[in-house]
Amino acid sequence: MWQSCGPETIKIEREADIVTARQVGRNMSRQLGFGTIMQSRIATSISELARNIYLYAGSGTITIAPIVRNGVLGLQLTAIDAGPGIPDIRKAMEDGYSTSGALGAGLPGVRRMMDEFEIHSSPGEGTRVVVVKWNGPIEEGV
Amino acid sequence: MWQSCGPETIKIEREADIVTARQVGRNMSRQLGFGTIMQSRIATSISELARNIYLYAGSGTITIAPIVRNGVLGLQLTAIDAGPGIPDIRKAMEDGYSTSGALGAGLPGVRRMMDEFEIHSSPGEGTRVVVVKWNGPIEEGV
Amino acid sequence: MVTRSLEEEYVKLLRDYLNGPGEDQLYFAQQMGKWLLAHDVSPEELTDMHGRALEKLGEVPEFVRASFSILTEVMIEYGNEHRSVHSWRSRHQQMEAELTVAQAMQKRLLPNQLPDYPGLEIGVVSIAAKQISGDYYDFICQDRERFCLTVADITGNGISAAMCMSMLKYAIDSLREMPLGPDEMLRHLNRIVGRNIDPSMFVTMLYGSYDTHQHCFRYAVAGHEPGFLYRAAEGVFYDLAGQGSVLGLCPNSEYEVQEVRLEAGDILILLTDGVTECKKNRYYLQRDELVLQMQAELGVHAQKMANALYNRLLALSQFELLDDYTMIVLRRT
Amino acid sequence: MVTRSLEEEYVKLLRDYLNGPGEDQLYFAQQMGKWLLAHDVSPEELTDMHGRALEKLGEVPEFVRASFSILTEVMIEYGNEHRSVHSWRSRHQQMEAELTVAQAMQKRLLPNQLPDYPGLEIGVVSIAAKQISGDYYDFICQDRERFCLTVADITGNGISAAMCMSMLKYAIDSLREMPLGPDEMLRHLNRIVGRNIDPSMFVTMLYGSYDTHQHCFRYAVAGHEPGFLYRAAEGVFYDLAGQGSVLGLCPNSEYEVQEVRLEAGDILILLTDGVTECKKNRYYLQRDELVLQMQAELGVHAQKMANALYNRLLALSQFELLDDYTMIVLRRT
Ligand SMILES: [Mn+2]
Ligand SMILES: [Mn+2]
Ligand SMILES: [Mn+2]
Ligand SMILES: [Mn+2]
Description:
The complex is a heterotetramer, with 2 copies of chain A and 2 copies of chain C. Chain A is α+β, with helices and mostly antiparallel strands. Helix content of chain A is 38%, strand content 31%. Chain A has helices at residues 15-31, 36-57, 89-92, 95-98, 107-113, and strands at residues 8-12, 60-69, 72-81, 116-122, 126-137. In chain A, strands 1-2-3-5-4 form a 5-stranded antiparallel beta sheet, covered by helices on one side. In chain C, helix 5 crosses helix 6 (182-196). At the C-D interface, helix 1, helix 2, helix 3, helix 4 and helix 5 of C face helix 1, helix 2, helix 3, helix 4 and helix 5 of D. Chains C, D: Residues 117-332 form the PPM-type phosphatase domain. Chains C, D: This is Phosphoserine phosphatase.
């Protein structure tokens, strides 16, 4: 079943694109067998990543893709923009900082909802965030 | 209306007494005009105070009383026991401590739900906690 | 995570409540809330479980069912807050652990025993307002007859005060073998403090040397709260003389040597401003009120007097210490 | 607090969703969750509001209505956790503020400029792994031709290491006017450290004096990570000789004076173990690997070399500093 769903990339330029990205993420996570709560958490993570692009970089992309590693199935989100970048990533990942609503807001929440979290960002070079949520071993016949 | 409800004292010796105290508190707070959420918070506060008596002092009393100060109506809870007392009150009121389930557990939560909080306790002399939740000015005709 | 048995228990709780609503089920519900939290069930999982539980209890209208999608979505944000509590708590615990080590280290800066000379009683009470104290005191034996005494108060918050205190301790410690008078010692420390700490911080200090043979106390003061001298013959408390610039303010401050001689029954009381800054009903205690308190505790051993005064002042300020508190009592017997 | 307009907005959101469920309402719901949290609406208030909202949307069966009493009761405990976040956050912020002051104070312990002598380049990189560093270094000018150099690493956590560091600074500072050799200085500091800090803590140190006329470096080592000497003529890195007990371990430790003479192009590299403990794919960097890194950065100014090495090692350890990092490069031109 999951073979039928390949990676999708959504351009984020308007707020409506955030909704589109959420919808794609929710559908794909449902197809991959994630429960309703996880579907919502994935949609929320997409929101956070996409809003950071929309609000602080102006434009960028979110790529949502099924992923398999060591026989385990998961969903991978990749957010890329060429915006101003995050000057202090260590700080952006702290809770106090994120509540201020600055660039990077919500990232600590995303990290906690997902299983893997990777961020690359430097001033002037944009930001790239890759997160993965695992769902469990690939079932037979899938 | 509130004049018809006077203070009530419930002896806490068995777990069932905790339920009785909650019921009295919920009824009285309803009569005093507290909303459903506050009724539940008051019941929860009574639980915490009563459970501390039941678990650590063995027996004691909870007194639930309407109270008026400066024309404002409220509910007062007084928990008294002759148990071992709390050796370090400052510590008992810290959040980390309360999660350990020791004597004094839940007290920080009670303090935050209520408007006033007073505690007197010393080893060997028992514990006395007085909390007040205000509801607002006395309405005419009440 | 929500397990199947937990879900069954929740359905049973709801069913019991529906069959005959009572406070006991509500009590159980509250206890269950604690249990769920302890088992790290997030609020969105709880709402989701509630929605599923309803299906087992009756015919759920479509609009109610659909509404739970919205409630869950809103709750995800509450879940994020819930998940953040863990990190707050663990960071806080780590910090507490660090402070505990620092506290132990600070204890080692203070003398572990008081000098013992015939004809002189010494009492000390030194209490930190928070974990780390900014008050410092020390006794250093010079020879068979004399010991040095330091009382100091460092401005500013705990950690930087503690750093400054350890500097002072080492600086005094490394000069102990040189025969410096109290004024020279303060001049020396003033330069070191000025060179090494932030201009916004400073240190007040009384440094002195007590000759237990002559019962003569020679000291110098750097902007420190004046102590008291009790003359037993007159039954009167006097302010201890001595002024001088706080340490770390000007590089060339000079200090003056003061001298007092204790007769039998006389008492020297040295302190930090935390003693006089005990709040009494929102007002700071005046020095003459403090004298009244001291007068009520005369005629006992120096340590007993120090303890009794601490208890009196703590009660006056309703068991709240706003500043670090240090009092040293020297009593010639 | 839940306001009337908020409640109306919530009802509208539910109604929109019921009329045509779409991702846009779910997105709005998530945003609303953030907004509710920011306005301090507790989770029990949210559930209660949800229950009330349902009444406006259709005929709510009695069992659904009653079930909300249970859900609210469970949620009160989640509300307590929600309310506790504030106090965690504010305590944490207070602590952060203290640490910021301590950090600034610690910066003042380090030299604000490097010595400048003809024929010698000096480069320093010193980075704390967390807010407060346990690495210490200092340069003190002795006269026109010579300066003293200290590199030290204090074991243990930030705050107590900072306290110990300020002791060392003051102790060295108060002894600067005495003409002590490196071995005597370490012997002296060893006694002071032993007397004043916890037995579980200790300090490793290299203390030396550099003669910029002879280009001769005389130093002594107290259990400190060995530095490197690069001989330009041979193109080879040697370990710097020198052993000795860490400070604070035994009261009577003796230290040996070592001496090296730098020829043109020779480089002295002094460091703390944070440099060698950079992790490369979970393995600590070996000293010979470090030499390879250093060899790749020869032939530039000492400060440039220090910077380049820091960047190389940081990248190797995936931008994670596990320990405080200090490297001092002395290069005879
Ligand atoms: Mn102070
Ligand atoms: Mn003070
Ligand atoms: Mn260290
Ligand atoms: Mn180290």
